[in-house]
Each structure stands twice: as C-alpha cells, then as structure tokens.
Design goal:
With 342 residues, this protein is an alpha/beta fold. Helices cover 29% and strands 23% of the residues. The protein has 11 helices and 16 strands.
Length: 342
C-alpha cells in the first residue's frame, strides 16, 4: 500500500529553517496537510512583516532574530534554499538525529507530474527558462520553479500527471534530498564555486552529482560531455542507472546532441539520427548558449517533444534579462546587458 505525502506529514512536527518565499511556501504546504509547523529565521521580523502575517494565516508558529532550542523540538526539519549545510543550526539538527530535507525534496513528494531538474555552475536559469518555453509551446501544463525564483512548494500539488515541472536546482538544494528523482536530470557544467560553503571543491562536485542519486533505468541524465569533471565521472561504468544522453559542441557523439557542419543533430537511443536545425537559427547567441540550447533540446526530446516545437522555441526564445541580453546596435556597435555577471 502506497503512503501518500499527506499521510506522511500529517501529525508530524516540522521545523522550517529560513523564511522568505520558499520557507513560507513549504510551511503553508505542510501545515495544510496537518503537520505542526514551526518556522525559524535569523532575520528581523520588522524586515518581513508580510511573512509574519502569512505565517499566522497559515497557522504556523515562528521565531525571528535567531534560532533558539525550539528548532530542535521536531520530528524533521526542512531548510530553505538559501540556508547552507554548514551553518550551526543545521549542524545541530543533524547532531541530534533529526532528518533534514530541502524544500525541493518535500515539494517533489507532492508532485504527480514528471520533473526535469537542471543544475550546473552556469547556465541554469537560461536553460530552465528555455525548457519551460519549449513545454509551454507544446501545450503542456508547465511549472517553472526552484532556484529560478518561484518556490516549487506553491505549485507542486497543482500539476496534473500529464504536466511537467521544470526546476532549476542549486547544489544547496541537492545537499538535503532523500527521494528526489527527476525523470530527466540535466548537468550543464561544473566550475569552482561556493567554496565558502563546501570544505573542498570535490564536495561541491559531489553535491551536483546528487541530481542522479535516485535515478533508475526509466530516467534520463542529460550531461555535458565536454566538461572535464562531469564526463569521466558519469561515464564510468555503473555510476549512473539512468539512460545517458550527452551533448557536445566539440565532438560528434554516437548518442545525444552535437553539432555537425553548423547543424544541431539529435540522436536518441530509440530513434534514428535527426537533423534539428542550423546553429545560426538559434536566437540566443554565444557558445555557452549553444550548450544551453543543446541541453534543453535533448531534455525535451527525451520527453517526446516534437522537433517542430523545438525549432519554434529555439528561434523565438530571447534569453533571460541581464544575461548577455542584446540591447541595441548603434553606429555598428552592439550593446549587450550582462549585469548579471557583475
């Protein structure tokens, strides 16, 4: 007999560490199914009056200005995406044996639709937005959430089984997953980052690899075959249970997505090789965006999105604000807004 997430959390005492949008969303979700929820945030309540009012409406008790011993009085804890694993309150919860889950883990348990989860050091937001555009163009009920700004807990339960959740996932969110299992996991790239929150670069890399922790042979892992950290680890025999779908801009591949003579080629294990489109037709420019586009197209084809929809989306998608966003051409000079990089 399958136990529903509603049954799992009903009557449980849950501490949510960290407020803001994700903390509020998961607190509301769990309180709504009968959990006794307590939210703790180190910030001042004066800076978040709307949060305090929303928590009261949801029947959630809270504390602000620091974490007291009340945090430990729970059956399990849920951490917001912005809370690092190395802060004292999380270490205390682990030390006393309380399970610590990420908000994305809890929300996914309520989701009946397949999940496409996208992670990497760079390009997550652009790729997530593009995949969301593709599925909307295909007419699918689509939620784009996670690290991109919308808390998944606010939308997970609303998705129908024939819909799709497209999630941008950070390493912090992956640190505290348990059952999280995307139908399609996407690994874009890994470069040194967040080393103030991880003991070593290798710990950061292993955190990213948790995206395929629970994968089965029915799932897919789309990954960058040109990345020096990802390819050797993923392709080592027995590492990944999912069907491997690599992408590359440098080499032709027997399976996956790659570039041949200026054209995007997609070859899935269960289908013949397909020409998708010329790289010059892709609206967003730059080699990094070619990688993002290959990843998005491959993940979408794995979910049986048709090539004509992919072409429509890739030629129409203008990118994300502040990320190499074309502004204008004046006097032969192209002006680009890249404020996100600064």
């Amino acid at each position: 007999m399958t136990i529903t997430p509603q049954e799992t959390y009903r009557g449980k005492r849950v501490t949510v560490v960290g407020g803001a949008r994700s903390g509020l969303a998961v607190a509301r979700l769990l309180s709504g199914v009968g959990a006794t929820v307590f939210l703790s945030d180190k910030g001042s309540p004066a800076n978040m009056p709307n949060l305090v009012a929303e928590l009261e409406r949801a029947g959630v008790k809270s504390e602000f200005g620091g974490h007291t011993a009340a945090v430990l009085d729970c059956d399990l804890a849920v951490v917001s995406p912005g809370v690092p694993s190395n802060v004292p309150v999380v270490k205390q919860l682990v030390a006393v044996g309380r399970p610590v889950l990420s908000e994305i883990e809890v929300a996914a348990q309520f989701c009946r639709a397949p999940i496409i989860a996208i992670t990497g050091t760079n390009g997550k937001t652009t790729t997530t937005s593009l995949v969301g555009r593709i599925f909307r163009d295909a007419g699918r009920q689509t939620v784009v959430a996670g690290n991109i700004g919308l808390p998944f807990s606010d939308y997970a339960a609303e998705l129908r089984p024939d819909g799709v959740a497209v999630l941008e996932i950070s390493s912090f969110q992956l640190d505290h997953i348990d059952q999280f299992r995307p139908k399609v996991g996407v690994l874009l790239n890994i470069t040194p980052d967040h080393l103030d929150r991880y003991p070593t670069f290798n710990d950061y890399v292993l955190s990213k690899f948790r995206i395929f922790k629970n994968a089965t042979a029915d799932d897919f892992l789309v990954y960058n075959a040109d990345d020096e950290f990802i390819r050797p680890f993923v392709e080592q025999s027995g590492r990944v249970a999912a069907t491997l779908l690599p992408f590359s801009t440098r080499h032709e591949l027997p399976i996956g997505a790659f570039v041949r003579d200026g054209e995007v080629i997609i070859h899935l294990p269960s289908a013949p090789e397909e020409r998708l489109m010329a790289t010059s037709e892709i609206r967003i420019r730059g080699e990094h965006n070619l990688y993002n586009s290959l990843a998005a197209a491959l993940a979408s084809r794995a979910m049986e999105i048709k090539n004509e929809t992919l072409r429509e989306s890739l030629t129409g998608f203008e990118g994300v604000a502040h990320r190499l966003e074309f502004v204008r051409d004046l006097g032969g000079v192209k002006y680009v807004n890249d404020s996100k990089a600064t």
